[in-house]
Design goal:
The structure is a homodimer of 105-residue chains.
Chain A (H helix, E strand, L loop, with lengths): L3 E9 L5 H14 L5 E6 L5 H4 L4 E7 L2 H9 L1 H13 E10 L1 E4 L3
Antiparallel strand pairs in A: 1-3, 1-4, 2-3
Helix pairs in contact in A: 1-4
Chain lengths: 105, 105
Amino acid sequence: MAGFKHLVIVKFKEDVVVEDILKGMQKLVSEIDAVKSFEWGQDIEGEEMLRQGFTHAFLMTFEDKQGYTAFVGHPCHVEFSATFSTAIDKIVLLDFPSVVAKAAT
Amino acid sequence: MAGFKHLVIVKFKEDVVVEDILKGMQKLVSEIDAVKSFEWGQDIEGEEMLRQGFTHAFLMTFEDKQGYTAFVGHPCHVEFSATFSTAIDKIVLLDFPSVVAKAAT
């Protein structure tokens, strides 16, 4: 699915229970219809130098930019973000219309 | 599609013609069967502070880790990487088995 993407890569603080964060995120995306799909992953084998301390990637897909904007302003997202921001050591966010250059067959 | 993901986020050097890089990448993924899907995007509106200079995200999907390993060792990838690495100012790579927490409907 192309659509509009919200990509978050993070390094969590050392004392953070990542499972709790994931549960909150799972609840968040299930509550907000504008989130059309959500997948995530943890890099456990990449080269440390290349991932520069980042360990987790979270990728949400929206139908379009309007869907993303609705998500960002949603009260559940605002509440979640406040908690999430206390858990992170480093973060990079990228938001972009996705270009599908090779489609899954 | 879940599978194994190869996520690359970059900031290109200032004098780089990104269109040329994209053409090379498009050729690369079309040449290598192990790449099941490929999408990318350019963040043109996110907050500079949150994207920390990174501008582009590239996301490739493989059936499994073996597919990814085949891609990495493929002569076309080795050749492309040599060129690509000269074009980048900053890069983060994350490779991970994807967990689909909300599927596209």
